[in-house]
Design goal:
This protein has 17 helices and 46 strands. It has 957 residues and is α+β, with helices and mostly antiparallel strands. Among the domains are: 229 residues, Jelly Rolls (Sandwich), CATH 2.60.120; 122 residues, Immunoglobulin-like, CATH 2.60.40; 76 residues, Immunoglobulins (Immunoglobulin-like, Sandwich), CATH 2.60.40.10. The chain has a 6-stranded antiparallel beta sheet with strand order 4-3-5-10-7-8, covered by helices on one side. The protein has a 6-stranded parallel beta sheet with strand order 27-26-25-24-23-32. Helix 8 runs parallel beside helix 9 and helix 10 packs parallel to helix 12. The two termini are 36 Å apart. The relative contact order is 0.10. The structure holds 2-acetamido-2-deoxy-beta-D-glucopyranose (NAG) (4 copies). One 2-acetamido-2-deoxy-beta-D-glucopyranose (NAG) binds next to strand 15.
């Protein structure tokens, strides 16, 4: 689909949660701005409401009842019940908020120390975006980047302030400002095709979350406000310091970004603290590293060496024996061993620290490898070209996961409960990696903390996507501040997997730019290299030895890396040899006639985006849409489909309808089409049918990519588009806005089991192959049972001529074919419309886990229909559902026929997911299914609202 890309969602209460990284601050006095009283006033002075800090104007206006996301009018009782939701067409109706400035004003701030020996600083961890900061009626700064930390010395202003000072922050209307920048003669103008607007135009000029201006899966609210915590810091000039940011780099001695480190080399821990205050010359640094779960277990304690200091930064390092620390591993590959590190800075000869900073780190190396395929790799059967994969602690592994988009259009209401629920759903899908896609925000530390603990690698990107960006000196300087701050802030997290400069430049925007204007292309390419390679890579290399860098997320790898070159990474671009394989794939095909044709899928080293949109469930639609709008073709439902994007600020029914049509055609092509008399039931069935298509299509692609791990392309990762939703709408998401699972997560969970058996059907020739694929790090063996039955559940004679069971042996991260047949000529299926192949795998092998060397049994279930589901002669399976209070499990039984896509639904009011869903049941087969409850507001009553149905029920009333 080109230029579109995404994030995630959970339903939350309006309360904001901001968890700042804790800093020891000696005796510095900290006044949290969240504890002051605030008002928010619009530009015309005719709206004033109480404000929070951190917050955004939309949230405070909502809390005050000025705007409502509720189902009906403000006077209606339901307002209170419906909490924070994106109602109806608020995406369009609330544009008046983004069209004006909003000012956050504090009450006079009391309790500040005005002594001459005190210095006073304003410190903001994030202001969104164009702000005029006034303290005691004087402008102290005009920050202009959402992603930076801003701090100001207000000592003399406070001293001369006649009363308790007022702090006010005037946030400019971002659309108005970027339109004005764009209208100026001084700025560069690109062809429209490379600065395409989703909704609000001109986002390339502002360092603000790019999906705030619309995306093909989200709304365009362009919110403003103090979105991160802030504080007033007071320091005694006698030597107190305040720590602004801390970079900890843990790497193997001799390691350099993008190159495989020596796994036997000792570890180096480098600590670098940014501060305000005056640090005496010849300061000393010491460090204490302990087990994060047991402070008595000390890994290292002592002085740091090579201490170097400047006005704002002090740095030192220590070497630790190679074997001493226990390694951190991603989940399923070993333990998530973490260590707490506390760095103290003291004046010479003093033991009393002036500055103390603590972080939690892991000892691991993570390489993003995208250099040339070596001769040794070619000798092992890998096609020449470039690598494109990750290595943890020196081991290649298969990356399984999805792309994370912002969980909400309003970050201050994203709670740690929501994110923890989201990570539950990540682990439950058997993922080991998420891609933090590049046009939301840099995630706060507390989300990386969750990932560190759970062992989920976060492929992280700088926040640039799907447009060309300027490289004027001002813009570059602003970006350099942003990158430096975030690289230093996040470097210590064990889950940080890589940095990439942005999304879809080399595979999409540069080729579009070249096509649009070949004459200016060399200049445009030069700008790209200046900003995304020279500027950014030099900053990474100066601040981190441990993290690899790639200038963008979809490309053909690099040919040369050398900091002394004018452009320190020489990208391969399209300098390719036919028949060789380079880089990753970013693949969308909305022609559903080939959705299950594997010959139409791309062959690459890694699939970082692929997918198709589906509708959320009726339960999720009901959160956001009035009852009369609950139909597939209501204006509200259509306009919430942003695939395809409006391309401007008007309501573009035409473009939105194209997406609805794609889903409709997909269902009509392959699935029984719902035609129920009850309109809401019919809408619900249609929504579900779009999810069946989505899940089957992703399964087909994931199986294809995983099989590639053992083929000459040596394919080593697949991350589907997109994990989560930012609101309630038709999108590529697996998880709906409040975290409810679509069909896809259940199917991706199965397809990302370690050892899987998959059917590959060439439906034109009617060839069928079955392959076993494993991502274990050692060979595994087992059996696959293959059982042909008709749709009444009766065995097909002689198992249709297929062996009932096949033994297999599969290599480490490899694949093996166990069946190759032709359904028409080799098999004897009396009626292909009345047949299904049940595939059950059992394998024995070892988890890639150094601390668990036990032989583990792995199982996987799958099925294959020799026709499309809408041709299958499905009968009513007469499903029975019961719930056992003591085991807390549901039992589902098919009593009269094979149940395809057996589907348990939980009611609204409970959040969580079933152990299994969308499975096949044969008559007489009873399946016990548990449910992981994440949040229950029904007092347990939800179990009575659980229902079960299957493909049979899609069309029957
Ligand atoms: C506030 O003033 C503006 C400009 O005069 C006007 O357009 C708007 O309707 C007013 N809003 C309210 C709530 O009075
Ligand atoms: C709105 O904000 C912009 C950017 O900070 C500022 O330049 C402008 O003066 C503000 N206008 C008003 C009326 O507050
Ligand atoms: C390690 O640090 C974390 C905060 O990052 C803290 O919650 C934890 O208690 C510390 N562990 C020990 C054993 O003190
Ligand atoms: C990678 O291969 C290209 C040819 O495709 C070659 O020009 C380049 O020098 C190679 N790089 C390295 C580091 O070997």
């Amino acid at each position: 689909m080109g230029r579109i890309r995404p994030l995630l969602a959970a339903l939350g209460i309006c309360a904001s949660v901001a968890v700042a990284t804790t800093e020891h601050v000696g005796k510095a006095a900290i006044h949290d701005l969240g504890l002051q009283e605030w008002t928010v006033t619009n530009e015309y002075g005719n709206i004033t409401v109480p404000g929070k800090f951190p917050s955004q104007a939309h949230l405070d206006l909502h809390a005050a009842g000025v705007i409502s996301e509720s189902l009906t009018t403000q006077s209606d009782q339901r307002v209170k019940l419906t909490r924070c939701r994106y109602h109806g067409l608020n995406d369009f109706d609330l544009r008046w908020i983004a069209a004006q400035n909003w000012t956050y004003t504090s009450k006079p701030i009391s309790g500040l120390n005005k002594h001459a020996d005190t210095s006073t600083w304003l410190v903001f961890d994030g202001l969104d975006t164009y702000a005029t900061v006034k303290f005691c009626d004087h402008i102290v700064g005009t920050p202009d980047n959402q992603f930076r930390q801003w701090f100001y010395d207000v000592s003399s202003l406070l001293a001369s302030c006649k009363s308790d000072p007022v702090l006010s922050i005037n946030f400019g209307s971002v659309p108005r400002i970027i339109n004005a920048i764009n209208a100026s003669d001084d700025v560069q103008h690109w062809p429209a095709s490379v600065v395409y607007p989703f909704e609000y135009p001109n986002r390339q000029w502002v360092r603000k979350e790019q999906n705030d201006f619309g995306w093909d899966w989200g709304p365009a609210f362009s919110p403003v406000g103090p979105w991160q915590p802030g504080r007033i810091v007071q320091l005694s000039k006698g030597g107190e310091l305040y720590s602004l940011n801390t970079a900890i780099d843990v790497f193997r001695k001799g390691q350099f970004n993008n190159f495989a480190p020596d796994q036997t080399a000792p570890w180096v821990v480098n600590a670098s603290l940014d501060f305000v205050g005056t640090l005496p010359k010849h300061a000393s640094m010491s460090v204490l590293i302990t087990d994060a779960k047991d402070s008595r277990s000390v890994l290292y304690s002592g002085k740091l060496e090579g201490v170097a200091q400047s006005d704002m930064t002090v740095t030192g390092s220590v070497t630790i024996d190679a074997e001493k620390p226990k390694l951190w591993w991603p989940r399923d590959m070993g333990d998530q061993q973490l260590y707490n590190i506390t760095v103290s800075v003291s004046s010479p000869g003093s033991e009393t620290p002036l500055l103390v900073s603590s972080r939690r780190v892991g000892f691991r190396t993570i390489l993003f490898s995208s250099g040339n395929i070596t001769d040794a790799q070619i000798a092992s059967g890998i096609t020449p070209g470039n690598n494109w994969h990750f290595e943890i602690n020196g081991h290649e592994f298969y990356a399984k996961g999805a792309n994370l988009i912002p969980p909400d259009a309003f970050w201050p209401r994203v709670t740690s409960d929501r994110m923890n629920r989201l990570f539950d759903s990540v682990e439950a899908q058997n993922f080991n990696m998420l891609r933090v896609w590049s046009s939301g925000t840099y995630l706060p530390d507390w989300i990386y903390d969750i990932a560190d603990e759970r062992g989920v690698l976060l492929w992280s990107e700088f926040q640039f996507s799907d447009t060309l960006y300027p490289d004027s000196p001002d813009f570059k300087e602003n970006v350099a501040g942003e990158i430096t701050y975030n690289v230093r802030r996040l470097n210590h997290h064990a889950s940080l997997a890589c940095w990439m400069g942005g999304n879809e430049f080399e595979n999409l925007m540069l080729p579009i730019a070249q096509g649009a204007d070949p004459e200016t292309y060399p200049y445009v390419l030069g700008q790209y290299e200046d900003l995304f390679i020279k500027t950014m890579f030099n900053i990474i290399a100066a601040n981190s030895h441990s993290i690899s860098y790639s200038p963008c997320s979809a490309n053909n790898g690099w040919m040369e890396i050398d900091l002394d070159l004018p452009v320190p990474i020489v990208e391969r671009y399209y300098n390719t040899t036919s028949g060789h394989i380079y880089g990753d794939t970013d693949f969308y095909n909305y022609d559903t006639s080939v959705s299950f044709d594997t010959s139409a899928y791309p062959v690459g080293r890694f699939a970082n985006e692929f997918g198709f949109i589906s509708m959320p469930s009726i339960q999720t639609w009901q959160q956001a849409v009035d009852p009369e709008d609950l139909s597939f073709n209501s204006t509200t439902v259509i306009l919430r489909n942003h695939h395809y994007p409006a391309g401007g600020l008007t309501r573009n029914i035409h473009n939105s309808t194209l997406g609805q049509v794609e889903m409709t055609l997909a269902v009509e092509r392959y699935y029984p089409t719902p035609d129920k008399t009850d309109p809401v039931a019919n809408f619900s069935s249609w929504c579900h049918a779009t999810q069946l298509f989505q899940a089957d299509m992703y399964k087909s692609e994931i199986q294809f990519y995983r099989r590639g791990s053992g083929l000459p392309e040596r394919q080593l990762g697949s991350l589907y588009w997109q994990l989560n939703d930012i609101w309630q709408a038709p999108t590529w998401a697996g998880l709906e806005y409040d975290g409810r699972w679509k069909v896809l997560p259940y199917v991706s969970r199965r397809t990302y089991e370690h050892v899987i058996a998959s059917a590959f059907w060439n439906y034109t020739a009617n060839d069928l192959e079955i392959w076993v694929t494993s991502d274990l790090w050692e060979p595994a063996s087992g059996q696959v049972s293959l059982t042909w039955v008709d749709l009444k559940g009766e065995p097909i004679e002689n198992n249709a001529g297929m062996p009932k069971s096949v033994d297999f042996h599969v290599g480490a991260i490899n694949t093996t074919q166990i069946i190759s047949t032709n359904i028409s000529s080799d098999l004897k299926i009396p009626d292909p419309q009345d047949a299904v192949l049940i595939i059950q795998l059992t394998a024995k092998g070892k988890l890639p886990n150094a601390s668990n060397r036990k032989i583990t049994t792995f199982t996987h279930h799958n099925h294959f229909l020799p026709v499309w589901p809408n041709q299958a002669k499905v009968t009513d399976p007469k499903l029975k559902l019961s719930y056992n209070k003591s085991t807390e499990k549901f039992t589902v039984e098919a009593t009269a026929g094979v149940s395809l896509y057996t589907w348990l639904t939980h009611p609204a009011g409970v959040l969580g997911f079933f152990d299994d869903n969308a499975f096949v049941l044969r008559p007489g087969e009873k399946k016990e299914v548990g449910f992981t409850v994440q949040e229950d507001t029904t007092g347990g009553k939800w179990v009575e609202g659980v229902t079960v149905d299957s493909l049979w029920d899609l069309t029957t009333t």
